[in-house]
Amino acid sequence: QVQLVESGGGLVQTGGSLRLSCAASGSIFSINAMGWYRQAPGKQRELVVVASGSSTNYADSVKGRFTISRDNAKNMAYLQMNSLKPEDTAVYYCYAKIKQTLYSYMNDYWGRGTQVTVSS
Q1: What is the pLDDT of residues 73-102, one digit of tens each?
Q2: Which of 78, 65, 84, 64 is closest to 12 using CA atoms?
Q3: What is the pLDDT of residue 54?
Q4: pLDDT tens profile 4-36
Q5: Coil, strand, or helix at residue 103?
Q6: Residue 64 neighbours by CB distance under 10 Å
Q7: Residue 52: how many CB atoms within 10 A of its CB?
Q8: How would you classify residue 53: left for phi > 0, otherwise alpha for psi between -120 and 50, otherwise beta?
Q9: Would you place residue 53 in the very low, low, confident or very high pLDDT band (cuts 50, 70, 90)?
């Protein structure tokens, strides 16, 4: 079993900052990619950022404001969010593409989400 657990969400004013953390645990052989998606009320889940190897893909709406970092030794990912806007309000989900054993396929895993609310 693999678990992804997010932390660090909360309420912040426009222009403020938050740092989200994601911890992956369980039966993990390797992690190919980690990242973040978000879902605002009444909207579909959307990509925020995914980092895989040396490649990082940010949504245009967060470029220059959000930064992902990874601690591969600890199976952790972080999302530093600066200059937050009300439109960043959403539930943020950690995502990872994980291989559980040497011979298994890569599978997608999701955390349960953490709420980020930006007040105007």
Answers
A1: 999 999 999 999 999 999 999 999 999 999
A2: 84
A3: 87
A4: 999 999 999 999 999 999 999 999 999 999 999
A5: coil
A6: 9
A7: 14
A8: left
A9: confident
What single-letter amino acid sits at 98?
I
Distance from C-alpha of 46 to C-alpha of 59, rounded to nearest angstrom: 9
Q: Is 88 helix (H, G, I), strand (E, B) or coil?
A: helix
Q: Tokens in use for 69?
A: 């970092």
Contact 93, 38 (CB under 8 A): yes
CA distances from 56 to 12, 36, 42, 63, 112 (A): 26, 11, 27, 11, 23
The 8-class DSSP code of residue 84 comes to -
Which CA distances in Å does 65 have to 9, 17, 82, 83, 101? 16, 9, 5, 6, 36
What is the pLDDT confidence band of residue 55, given thresholds at 50, 70 and 90?
very high
| Helix H or strand E segment including 23 | strand 18-26
